[in-house]
Write a structure and sequence with these properties.
The chain contains 5 helices and 14 strands. The N and C termini lie far apart (56 Å). α1 crosses α3. By secondary structure, it is an alpha+beta fold.
């Protein structure tokens, strides 16, 4: 898979928009006269997301993050697959990743260094960030910059695993969307549905897709015709949520050749492990 297609997959995983599906119970009820409007829900959820960035509670957890990218044939059968396993920890909104294994194999120190350097280059290009090695914002995609791009409509309520959720539709705010970086081409063409936990005001689930074809470098080198994404998040403690599973199915063209791709990430084995305070050196 060439670099530009790897960026598409990385955008999907890193934006999160990076396990097992939650069990849904009850159907969505249409709200004719909602007691709370969609902008108010989004505002409160955004306040919660920003507060969690500054909180140390989520940074006390470490977990395993498994990502995979599969090249598919036109029938959807995998032709090749690459899987990576990381140790992950969130700190001030950034998910720091430590690569552990590739395709089930441990790496030598030299191989590990090369793979981490490749991960860093791809992630920085995809997210337009110069963050530290192996870091991105996959757990904190709910930002003011992102929410300003879309309009939101409250569809109703749905119970997921015994918890009530607001169900909101979102779609691009208009045709004059910002176009400052490469990921903007994707974000400006997305619409979908969000499930926001009514008590914790955290995104519990999200489904979204491209509304139209996205061209890379004028469409000469590549284009993305289809992308469908499914995100499920999990509540590991009171008010503490993490991404649990993410699936993205992509279809497009690189040069003259069509491609089909499946990008996936799963987070497991959440453990509370507070950061150790720095050790003070004893005066001589």
């Amino acid at each position: 898979m060439n670099a530009c297609l790897l960026k598409f997959a990385t955008w999907a995983l890193a934006l999160g928009i990076g396990g097992l599906w939650g069990v849904c119970h009850a159907t969505t009820n249409t709200v004719t006269e909602p007691l709370i409007l969609a902008p108010a829900i989004i505002h409160r959820a955004l306040e919660k997301a920003l507060a969690m960035e500054k909180s140390e509670e989520r940074s006390q957890y470490v977990f395993l993050l498994t990502t995979s990218v599969e090249d598919l044939d036109p029938r959807g059968k995998a032709k090749n697959r690459k899987e990576k396993v990381y140790e992950a920890r969130v700190n001030e909104g950034w998910t720091a990743l430590k690569l552990l294994r590739i395709n089930g194999q441990d790496l030598t120190p030299a191989q590990l260094r090369r793979e981490e350097e490749k991960d860093l280059r791809v992630r920085q290009q995809a997210t337009q960030s110069s963050s530290s090695l192996g870091s991105d914002r996959r757990e904190n995609f709910f930002t003011p910059e992102l929410t300003r791009r879309y309009r939101f409509k409250l569809l109703g309520h749905e119970v997921i695993q015994g918890r009530t959720n607001y169900v909101l539709e979102f779609y691009p705010r208009g045709n004059d969307m910002p176009m400052k970086a490469a990921p903007d081409r994707l974000l400006n063409q997305m619409s979908g549905t969000l499930w926001i936990d009514a008590r914790d005001l955290e995104v519990a689930k999200a489904d979204f897709q491209l509304n139209g074809e996205v061209h890379l470098w004028g469409g000469i080198l590549a284009s993305l015709k289809k992308m469908e994404c499914h995100l499920v998040r999990t509540r590991v403690a009171e008010g503490i949520w993490f991404n649990q599973s993410f699936d993205a199915f992509l279809e497009g063209r690189k040069l003259a050749d069509p491609f089909h791709m499946h990008a996936q990430s799963t987070s497991t084995q959440f453990k509370r492990q507070p950061s150790e305070p720095p050790k003070l050196e004893k005066p001589e």
